[in-house]
Design goal:
single chain; about 1000 residues; alpha+beta; eight-stranded antiparallel β-barrel
């Protein structure tokens, strides 16, 4: 399988809900044309069973496949008249993207209208829903959906948005309205909410029923021209590797679009009358934009795009005063499958907000996944809540499609019916890739796909499977997943993993190879084709395991192609009975870390083996509070997770420890993602109450988020007398293109990496007048944790900046190489860039053994240390210091710009200060005085100063941001490869 469809992004649907029966019964012949067909077109059609019949005349075609975006593929059958047709299995209610694949070429179906999704214009089919009345076209007053053009100074372009105005907007020219900014999902555009989402009709019907306050809706495109979008990495079929850099759209929204709308529509242009909401990627944008701009937005809606936790809020009192509504929603299948995993448990986070006094709502759309029906229902629930004078209840919850009556849910939630789970002591069977439970040939119940983190599902319902009594177990799979976990009593188990290679793109052994680990037992270089003995053959791997912490864990790692699995069985063979310790109460710890001395107060609440509570931390004058997650107490073993957000990425701080024999202390191993590991001791505070301490309490009591660096990361900012600029700030326009000067060349090249075992990419700048007859020095420039080989160019326009410096005679002509410091086969940042941190250490060998030789073989370079420089930003700054100072025989010029916590401790970084002082031509350290990571660079500077190692220490007025990095590149580049 050449692609992966990951956690967030693609605002499409999970298509093809499997029925309980796997038989091929004839469809009910009451098919009708889809409501989305072009006028007069009969196909596609939908029947009362929610099956879709597609038909296309293509007499010269050899193969035709009906391909649902993000879902199942249905091979079509050629008829005598040259037409191809197929009838699908029952589909989920609502809207679905699809295309026809004719002899390998994906094309829209000419029978339907076109819709933008999956980053392309394609076809759509509407499966009538039992609750479709709330978005139906009715005889009620209608508003207008206005196509509107506005000029963006940030994009330097005319951009388009759609603006919904209520039915009475043109009747009273003196009336003004609140505004909702409503964002689409990944791979979609500004047409999505008005077309696929039916936003206008939803509002018309709510207003006609008197259920919502009239307001304007603005639907803009999140993708800004001229700015690299958070697009999928090369080789991926969906945007799971998106970097989700929302900076460009944030500037356009706040500084261009909102002023335009307020100037050209009759809006109530103040914070209490402005809301923002979005689906999937748009929900992530909503969170990223609204939380730092609460002076602009008072109502927040996140649909299948994460959630807001108390730890995300810097000042809870101010938040409660400014924010009138927080609304979080998901489809029930997203919750069942764990698709919500980024950002924590959305229900728990919403409950925590409510407990803190926030007017928060949590809605679950029954029987839907990551799809438009979930988001239509979410808007229907959200719209009546906003711009009201007092809190109101949500709309009546939508009932499941069965129509069975259910008890009324509380006003702030809609219940999710959990799947039936076998009783304790009975086998657990999970059928990957399906949305409803199934039974095998022996009558065993297999639960629908759940327990997995990451990945996507696919089914091949008619594929013959050999070597299996229940072939249907192998006709659907989950692929590209990261892990699987399931809570079980402690004891012994047999874990059975079911595989079959069913992807037509795999044609032989060695084409799909991956690793997996079952409860600590490694399976390296696993090849389903080899294990099963060929294509479409079943294979079962049986692994005996012991569980001591209440959970079975399986991790998957790609090597060649994505991991895949068809089913998992967990069969008990013996149960442990260790009695849990009782650790409820307050425990305190203090310890040294890479970001300073930390004080912690843990407030534990234990219920059997389940552990909940809070972690209150303090570093200097900076405080933070986090809810504990995944807490377990098994005998004297204690484990839990504290979540930390850094630059928009969630970092797991995992604690594993044991209680002392006298019950007075717990020795923990504390692992901060892949960055740091500390051994700490927490001691019971017998004098403290078990209740959480007050926010005004002193050290080791309640603390709150705020201060520090980007994303709430880093220690307190404590400046020393010499933490000041070594140089003036650059003049404006250092990276602005100038006319009348020579220009260099920027190109993307590939090289073979023996270290990674694949072909990799890097960007290379060659100076104006580059000639193979002349040799040039080389600067290697490294990016940050969320970036790649394009990051420096995106925000610093390196080619223009260098052209200007060289034209002004301020820098010597040099080659600048921008490689990808994430040295792994899939070298994209992915939805959680922190998970790729180990690959940044691997890059040391890739740089020395592969990158530098490739540059020297292709370009005319001066291949000695005096003509080789290394610099980087953030994570890349740490790499530059680690690798450059660790290889003084290779680099004579080294620069770290706001280096991250991956930087080695100073004594390890420079073990021989005299050698460093003797060999280095220039050592450059810089950081902004608003950067919460400054402590790291301060520590290196102090050590170098103490040991008489000459270096530049430049502290400017910026934060952990692009301005600091661009400015320091401008300053650094002028001073390298010069004798003075």
């Amino acid at each position: 399988m050449k692609t992966s469809i990951p956690l967030v992004a693609l605002a499409s649907c999970l298509v093809g809900s499997l029925s309980l029966s796997q038989t091929e019964s004839p469809p009910v012949e009451d098919f009708k044309p889809s409501s989305l067909n072009q006028p007069g077109r009969q196909y596609p059609q939908v029947n009362s069973e929610r099956r879709v019949r597609a038909r296309i005349v293509a007499p010269q075609a050899q193969t035709v496949v009906l391909d649902f975006l993000g879902g199942a593929k249905y091979p079509m059958t050629k008829e005598d008249d040259g037409a191809w047709s197929v009838v699908t299995r029952p589909q989920d209610e609502g809207f679905h993207y699809y295309q026809l694949v004719i002899d390998g070429a994906g094309v829209p179906d000419p029978g339907t209208r076109y819709f933008y999704g999956g980053s392309r214009w394609g076809s759509g089919v509407e499966v009538p829903a039992h609750d479709q009345e709330f978005y139906a076209l009715k005889d009620v007053p209608h508003g207008q959906l206005r196509e509107t053009l506005y000029f963006s100074k940030h994009a330097n372009a005319n951009l388009r948005c759609f603006v919904y105005t209520p039915p009475d907007y043109d009747k009273d020219p003196t009336k003004r309205y609140p505004v909702l900014y409503l964002q689409h999902g990944g791979g979609e555009d500004e047409t999505g909410w008005g077309s696929q989402g039916r936003a206008g009709l939803i509002m018309d019907n709510l207003l006609a029923a008197g259920r919502a306050k009239p307001f304007i809706i603005v639907m803009a495109n999140s993708y800004i021209p001229g700015v690299p979008p958070p697009a999928r990495p090369p080789g991926e079929a969906a945007p799971g590797g998106r970097r989700f850099d929302f900076g460009a759209f944030t500037r356009v929204l706040l500084e261009d679009l909102i002023p335009f709308v307020d100037a050209n529509f009759r809006t109530l242009a103040d914070q209490p009358n402005r809301a923002m909401a979005g689906l999937s990627m748009g929900g992530m944008q909503t969170k990223a934009i609204t939380l730092p701009n609460l002076d602009r937005f008072s109502h927040i809606g996140i649909f299948s795009g994460g959630s807001i936790a108390p730890a995300d809020i810097t000042d809870m009192d101010a938040f409660k005063q400014k924010v009138k509504v927080v609304f979080i929603s998901y489809g029930s299948r997203e919750l069942e499958s764990g698709r919500y995993s980024f950002g924590g448990d959305p229900r728990a986070n919403t409950d925590a907000l409510k407990a803190a006094g926030v007017n928060a709502y949590f809605y679950v759309s029954p029987d839907t996944g990551h799809e438009w029906q979930s988001w239509r229902r979410s808007l229907y629930q959200f719209a009546p809540l906003i711009f009201q004078e007092r809190p109101v209840e949500m709309a009546a919850a939508v009932l499941p499609a069965s129509g069975a009556s259910t008890p009324a849910a509380p006003p702030t939630t809609a219940a999710v019916t959990a799947p039936a789970v076998p009783a304790a002591g009975q086998p657990i069977r999970i059928k990957a890739g399906v949305t409803t439970p199934v039974r095998d040939a022996d009558g065993n119940l297999w639960l629908a796909d759940q327990g997995f983190q990451g990945g996507q599902t696919i089914e091949r319902p008619t594929l013959p499977i050999a070597n299996a009594t229940s072939p249907d177990l192998y006709r659907a799979e989950r692929y590209s997943m990261d892990s699987f976990s399931w809570s079980v009593p402690n004891g012994q188990y047999l874990v059975k993993l079911h595989f079959a290679e069913t992807f037509e793109g795999i044609t032989g052994p060695g084409e799909r190879v991956f690793h997996f680990n079952v409860q600590g037992k490694d399976f390296k270089d696993f090849d389903p084709w080899v294990k099963a003995g060929g294509f479409a053959r079943a294979y079962i791997e049986t692994v005996p395991v012991e569980v001591t912490d209440g959970k079975i864990r399986i991790t998957f790692t790609p090597k060649i192609e994505n991991p895949q699995i068809c089913a998992i069985e967990i069969i008990p063979t013996g149960t442990g009975t260790a009695a849990p310790a009782n650790i409820s109460g307050v425990w305190k710890a203090d310890f040294d870390s890479q970001i300073g001395h930390q004080y912690y107060a843990f407030t534990f609440k234990q219920d059997g083996t389940t552990l909940t509570g809070k972690a209150n931390s303090e570093i200097g004058d900076r405080r933070r509070e986090a809810e504990l997650q995944e807490g377990k107490v098994v005998g004297d073993a204690i484990s839990f997770v504290e979540m930390l957000n850094f630059q928009g990425n969630d970092i797991r701080i995992r604690y594993t420890g044991r209680l002392s024999a006298d019950g007075s202390e717990i020795k923990f191993t504390r692992e901060v993602g892949e960055f740091a590991r500390e051994e700490i001791v927490a001691r019971r505070d017998r004098a403290a109450a078990a209740a959480p301490p007050s926010a005004s309490a002193p050290r080791s009591q309640a603390v709150r988020a705020g201060g520090g660096g980007r994303g709430g990361f880093g220690g307190p900012i404590e400046l020393n007398p010499d933490d000041k600029p070594a140089f003036d700030d650059p003049p404006p326009g250092i990276a602005a293109k100038r006319d009348g000067i020579p220009r260099g060349k920027l190109e993307m090249i590939e090289y073979d990496s023996k270290t990674v075992g694949t072909t990799r990419k890097m960007q290379v700048y060659t100076p104006p007048g580059y000639s193979a007859d002349k040799k040039y020095p080389v600067l290697y420039l490294l990016h940050g944790i969320g970036g790649d080989e394009t990051e420096w160019q995106r925000f610093a326009t390196v080619d223009v900046l260098m052209d200007n410096l060289i034209a002004d005679g301020k820098a010597v002509p040099m080659i600048v190489v921008m490689p990808n410091g994430r040295a792994q086969k899939d070298d994209r940042a992915g939805p959680n860039a922190m998970a790729t941190a180990p690959a940044f250490a691997v890059f040391e060998r890739d740089l020395l053994d592969d990158v530098i030789p490739a540059i020297q073989a292709r370009y005319a370079v001066q291949a000695d240390r005096e003509h080789r420089a290394l610099a980087g930003l953030s994570m890349g700054g740490g790499q530059a210091l680690n690798f450059g100072l660790g290889h003084l025989d290779t680099f004579a010029w080294v620069g770290g710009f706001s280096s991250a916590p991956n930087t080695k401790p100073p004594a390890e970084l420079v073990p021989d200060p005299a050698a460093a002082a003797r060999q280095l031509k220039l050592l450059w350290l810089s950081c902004g005085n608003k950067d919460g990571l400054i402590r790291i660079s301060q520590g290196v500077h102090a050590y170098l100063q103490e040991h008489n190692v000459p270096h530049v220490w430049h502290v400017d007025g910026n934060g952990h941001d692009a301005t600091h990095w661009r400015n320091n590149l401008w300053l650094f580049a002028q001073r390298i490869f010069k004798s003075n």
